[in-house]
Design brief:
The protein has 312 residues and is an alpha+beta fold. 36% of the residues lie in helices and 32% in strands. It is rod-shaped.
Length: 312
């Protein structure tokens, strides 16, 4: 009986060993399966971040495109994330010319105003103005000296000089105007004079409007003369019209107008003396010329201008 017990005990031992082996195999199998699952699951997470990174890259261009502009190209950009990123600067660069193009009309507007300015000048008829568009220094010649403030003739010469050319005038109807003051007269001679000239030298038609200080009179006279031949002296030029006028030692604005057959000398806006030519200057005879003269008169000029006038 003990033998049978021993056999039964051995059989139970083998059975226990077999169960233990089966359990160990099952555990091993479970471990293998678990490792396999962990390995598989370990690979899938590694891909998930990559997808997450791509999904993060995709919104970035969208955000850039959205912030950048209102243009509609933005929706198309997300389809190609890298291209959208490259396109973003390109579109910003393209957007910069856009303001430049918008800025171009502004210069155009400005240029339109600059075209209006000459138009206004043309309406005013201003051809020459110093100081202003031109400098008084540009006029200095012969017995005339100039600074930024004044054009001066010392009045030391009793000999008639050619008139000082101020400017050409594109028509034969124009006015020459100057703010002038007499500072003294040459004592060694009489018939000192000064004034403005206007005409067409090429046609030998030049006239003067100015003042003369006659030898036989203490009163100066405003005079219109034909100064086409200046070598004899302005006091010897043919007189067209004259009238007594005392300039004193104050500043005055002298304006000499030539229009058609009409001559007119104004002082401080008032008509002083006027006259009529035998025949008007032919407009086809050439461009006009404006000038200034002084003979034996110490003269100071602080402004001078030439202006076109409407044709008569």
């Amino acid at each position: 009986m003990s033998r049978q017990y021993e056999l039964g005990r051995r059989q139970r031992g083998w059975r226990d060993l077999a169960l233990a082996g089966a359990a160990a195999g099952a555990v091993t199998l479970l471990l293998v399966v678990a490792v396999g699952l962990v390995w598989l699951l370990g690979r899938s997470p590694s891909q998930a971040p990559a997808l997450a990174v791509q999904s993060q890259l995709t919104p970035t261009p969208r955000a850039l495109t959205f912030v950048r502009n209102t243009p509609t190209p933005a929706p198309a950009a997300p389809a190609e994330a890298p291209t959208a990123t490259a396109v973003a600067p390109a579109e910003e660069e393209a957007a910069e010319p856009s303001p430049t193009v918008i800025a171009t009309p502004e210069p155009t507007a400005v240029s339109a105003e600059s075209e209006t300015t000459p138009a206004a000048d043309a309406a005013d008829g201003v051809v020459f103005e110093a100081p202003g568009r031109n400098e008084l220094e540009t006029l200095a010649s012969g017995s005339w000296t100039a600074s930024a403030d004044a054009l001066v003739n010392s009045g030391k010469s009793a000999v008639a000089e050619p008139w000082l050319v101020i400017s050409a005038a594109p028509s034969t109807a124009f006015a020459v105007e100057a703010e002038m003051r007499v500072n003294g007269l040459l004592d060694s001679v009489c018939d000192q004079s000064f004034g403005l000239t206007a005409g067409v030298p090429g046609a030998d038609r030049v006239f003067g409007g100015g003042l003369i200080f006659p030898c036989a009179s203490d009163t100066a006279r405003a005079r219109l003369t034909d100064v086409s031949v200046w070598e004899d002296g302005y006091n010897a030029d043919p007189v067209l019209a004259e009238k007594a006028f005392d300039p004193g030692d104050d500043w005055h604005t002298y304006r000499f107008e030539l229009r058609g057959d009409e001559l007119r000398l104004l002082v401080d806006g008032g008509d002083v003396v006027s006259g009529t030519l035998d025949a008007p200057i032919d407009p086809a005879s050439g461009d006009g010329q404006a000038g200034l003269w002084a003979q034996g008169a110490q003269l100071e000029v602080r402004r001078v201008s030439v202006q076109n006038l409407p044709s008569p």
